[in-house]
């Protein structure tokens, strides 16, 4: 008998690689996208909402609700770091797409997450592609959320490698370190897919050419918006290609066998020059003293990924569209 598709909510800040991940999810029979929630990160939250609605219109999937998320960090911080230099000022490769016709639903992102998790207890996975503010708000405002949610797959962290904002921090964790620490220590089933893993998944210039040759509707759309993302990678990393951050995290939820993971306690540095650092404790040593990692629940941290399989799936599903 066929398994029921896994219900997922994508928390997103679209974003070029977010667009890839969203289209990939819509092309994946293993999952049913039951909503998008929006957050700042690659763009401000209002633009993330507009882009989420736009992408669903491109996909012909306006049946999927969009719930707008927080405009500020969990500590009400308004000094946000927006990665428009990675994705373009519109978040989608400076294409000046017309505004979407649709509107977000009345519920906030956090309330939508809470509602869906309690409607389908143990059956909803959140794929978090931006800073973790909405998820932390859901955890803080509903004591049942942590047990109701099936899994939270987090694209974020830099485990034992340098960050991409600065040597310490990865962009999504840096965006709201306090929220990230709430999520990692909440006791929920959390799987963190950090840039130590996503930097192994590389989409080359030649891969983009292959996308361009296909007549798939998502392939065609993505080729338009990928330029800015490619230029950024050429400049920042001197690479001939781009990292598939968001698609890799999405596929970790769709096909968990693509990654391996280890388990331990993750805390996030919230102040100082290492703000946003994710520090993993592997529990191999029993420390004599009580530490900030003692008695905290374990999370899963991705260690390896079958990168060729991820690239193949991305290519196959986006070209056959
Ligand atoms: O250099 C960067 N600075 C800020 N954000 C980035 C950078 N590279 C990628 N991303 C964005 O942040 C997430 C991965 O950390 C991805 O969602 C990607 O779109």
From TrEMBL:
Residue ranges constituting the Inosine/uridine-preferring nucleoside hydrolase domain according to the UniProt record: 8-311
The keyword Cytoplasm is annotated on this UniProt entry: yes
Pfam families: IU_nuc_hydro (PF01156)
Reactions the enzyme catalyzes: inosine + H2O = hypoxanthine + D-ribose; uridine + H2O = D-ribose + uracil; xanthosine + H2O = D-ribose + xanthine
EC number assigned by the record: 3.2.2.2, 3.2.2.3
Enzyme class: hydrolase
UniProt keyword list: Cytoplasm, Glycosidase, Hydrolase
Gene Ontology biological process terms, A to Z: purine nucleoside catabolic process; ribonucleoside catabolic process
GO MF, any single term: inosine nucleosidase activity
Primary location recorded for the protein, binned into one broad class: cytoplasm
Compartments where located: Cytoplasm
GO CC terms of this entry: cytosol
UniProt similarity note: Belongs to the IUNH family.
Protein name in UniProt: Inosine nucleosidase
